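Hi Q.,

Before the meeting this afternoon, I wanted you to have the 6-O-phosphono-beta-D-glucopyranose prediction in hand. No need to reply - just skim if you have a minute. The sequence and ligand are here:
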Amino acid sequence: QEHPKSVIVIFGATGDLAKRKLFPSIYHLVQNEKIGKEFAVVGVGRRPWTNDEFRHNVSDSIQTSIKESKDLDDFTSHFHYHPFDVTNPSSYLELNDLLTKLDSTYQTEGNRIFYLAMAPEFFGTIAKNLKKEGLTATKGWSRLVIEKPFGHDLPSAQTLNQEIREAFNEDQIYRIDHYLGKEMVQNIEVIRFANALFEPLWNNRYISNIQVTSSEVLGVEDRGRYYENSGALRDMFQNHMLQMVALLAMEPPIKLTTDEVRSEKVKVLRALRAVSEDEVSDYFVRGQYASGQLDNKQLIGYTEENNVDKKSQTETYVAGKLLIDNFRWAGVPFYIRTGKRMAAKSTQIVVQFKDIPMNLYYKKGENVPPNLLVINIQPDEGITLQLNVKKDGDAGDSKPVKLDLSNNFQDGINTPEAYEKLLYDCMRGDATNFTHWDEVSLSWSFVDPISDAWKKGKAALAAYPSGSMGPKESDEMLEADGNQWWPVN
Ligand code: BG6
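Predicted structure with the ligand bound:
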């Protein structure tokens, strides 16, 4: 197995993401021998840190997140810090000198990853300057990794995209959606396309509806300033949730190549039925957490959080009903919900199959429960299949049972974290699990009328108690279709 070689430049290296996710991921990649000795990491930030301070921070981050931490000194010796001013050209020239030097020390063959993990207002400036000051002109490859948010609506995303495209080609740009790095999100494709049992039924003849839930227990924490301008729609729905829908609904790709997979996902997003501003309240529910209780702890409401407007109208919960107007999915609702301060941390997909044509086991007004395929993404990973079997002793009566494949197919305890997989993919030049510009733009086109309608007050903001599963309006939306949310695990 050949090790990819690269210098990884992290903009925002003193920040939270670098500390919580990126450093431990790189460490894992080295420990798991996915990358060898030919790598260096350059931390770039405004703070005037020394190499030692930076290495100390890296080593801290690894010790906090990983219990076993061997060879740490050797590992952190690959890390270098460069104090930096994003708007100053000479900062870039100095950085370039450092990268050239490290390239020869670590034999990284001129390969460079520029990872933007910082305030999005600088994404465009940095990308342009990297090219202008010659940092992308090496004998190896240069790639740009870019964290969300990718704009806050279609026009701002287009502007940002034009800026970065002045410096990087589409195939050099790796837009991160960390949900695409999750083991069970990557498993959607395999469950669908490697099983004779599911794919023939995966359409509007046999599926009644599909539900995607991503609920969090945490509130807005210390991110009030960001979240006030984002809300659940932009923070979770536009990216993570729509990406899962695309994977669930896409046609089988001809091959598993980046272009083929992405183009099938794009087709799903193109087939999403647009919701006009006036229809938004028929298809979407927005909610905001009020005070409440969870595990005997009293929790404050969203408007009492730090850096949040006392009269904030920002949604911390969104539920939507999506329709995909194509041959496979016509008439099948995709119900999506995500929110903060809910009863459980869970990301789960439920595929509800249609009832059988004639029900021999109908009793006392109760239908036989439908077959459900549940894909558990987190915290537990696995799939369960709800079937009906004979009720013990009672002839002519049935009961639901669950075939539970949780944990059974894990290869080991060390399933790599999303960021680890994505970083490795980027080093190998595999962009399949990153979002293409067409996906980003179509997602914003779908989402913009919804946030516009909300901004104009066209739908009420429903309060829900912290620690609950969201506002009752969301349940009512499904009830109106004769459906219900299935409980999360
Ligand atoms: C991020 C959002 O993209 O995803 C956060 O900005 C959210 O608000 C997080 O908490 C959820 O990710 P995960 O992996 O914990 O489900």
